[in-house]
Write a structure and sequence with these properties.
Blueprint: H1 11-19, E1 23-28, H2 65-77, E2 84-89, H3 99-111, E3 115-122, H4 129-141, E4 143-151, H5 155-160, H6 167-179, E5 183-190, H7 197-208, E6 214-219, E7 222-223, H8 227-234, H9 242-255, E8 261-264, E9 274-276, H10 283-297
Parallel strand pairs: 1-2, 2-3, 3-4, 4-5, 5-6, 6-8
Antiparallel strand pairs: 7-9
């Protein structure tokens, strides 16, 4: 057991090791948009994306970054009396702006009390040279990781969900980030329409050997008002049961290299917007179920990871 009480390399354990105390992520809305919405790549966004740009739990976007962080700190203080914070630019595409705008917002977030690092969610096709130079600069000054929305390696599914870039763009982005020693984190979604278990796990195997440092494993959940919701009503597709999802996550954990940090093991939408699967709204039960599955299998992260020859 090399990750405290866990059978996997959790973000919580990694941040405690680095900073010596509990570190929280503060979800921020930097008031960005997305090339998949402004017409550059598309106008409707990804199929599953809500009007909030996957940031349903961030504070209102018209608030200042300081006001957003203070609101979330106040909520966290009800349970935790002390800790440090990662400023997490979550909504939409957080490198999709002129570099002077990005610099101002990132620096403002880092200047806030007890913020010790930066996490930036973006698209692989939104990392031009000047933005990479800025990220390189920030990486010399603070703890940083960049999140890339991969979701799947299968082109038919990528086309269906309107991802808007080829797999080669992800590979190039990871290469550019790693050339600068910037940590990269990939998002994968389990349960995308009509993907098989084998396809899901082949995406996991790809990520395991992609050179990234972290991964977020999400359950596909359907939110009210999204185009995914419309598709589900017009062409119903099978949804993962809680038992199947837990089993697949355990399979994925076994396939990932031991050093890769698992940032997330499920995804949940705002309860007032959640259409299906309803069980995903009980996040703690899902996480407990994953822990139980790992114990029952007597398994751990990396058990079946294979280093290529």
């Amino acid at each position: 057991m090399r990750w405290g009480s866990k059978r996997y390399h959790s973000l919580n354990e990694e941040l405690r090791k680095i900073f010596g105390e509990k570190v929280f992520k503060l979800s921020l809305d930097g008031h960005f948009t997305c090339p998949n919405r402004d017409g550059t790549v598309g106008t409707k966004g990804c199929l599953f994306c809500s009007e909030q740009g996957a940031g349903e739990f961030a504070a209102p976007r018209q608030w200042s970054l300081q006001a957003q962080t203070e609101q979330q700190k106040n909520l966290l203080s009800q349970k935790w009396t002390r800790g440090k914070y990662i400023a997490y630019f979550q909504n939409f595409t957080n490198t999709y702006a002129p570099v002077n705008v990005l610099r101002r917002k990132y620096k403002e977030a880092l200047s806030l009390p007890d913020v010790v690092g930066l996490a930036i969610a973006t698209r692989p096709d939104c990392l031009p040279g000047d933005v990479l130079d800025l990220l390189d600069e920030l990486n010399q000054e603070t703890y940083l990781w960049v999140e890339l929305g991969l979701q799947t390696i299968h082109e038919p599914t990528a086309k269906l969900i309107r991802r808007g870039y080829p797999l080669s763009a992800f590979e190039e982005a990871v290469g550019q980030l790693r050339n600068r020693n910037i940590n990269a984190v990939a998002h994968l979604i389990f349960g995308l329409p009509w993907e098989t278990d084998e396809q899901i796990l082949s995406s996991v195997k790809y990520v395991a050997h992609s050179g990234i440092q972290g991964v977020k494993l999400h359950l596909m959940h359907i939110l009210k008002g999204t185009d995914l919701h419309i598709l589900y009503e017009t062409e119903p597709f099978p949804l993962l049961s809680q038992e199947k999802y837990i089993s697949l996550i355990a399979d994925a954990i076994e396939l990932l290299p031991p050093e890769m940090v698992i940032h997330r093991m499920t995804g949940d939408g705002a309860k007032q917007l959640l259409v299906a699967p309803k069980w995903s709204g009980h996040k703690r039960a899902v996480l407990n179920g994953i822990e139980k599955e790992l114990r029952q299998r007597d398994t751990y992260q990396g058990k079946y990871f294979q280093v290529p020859y």
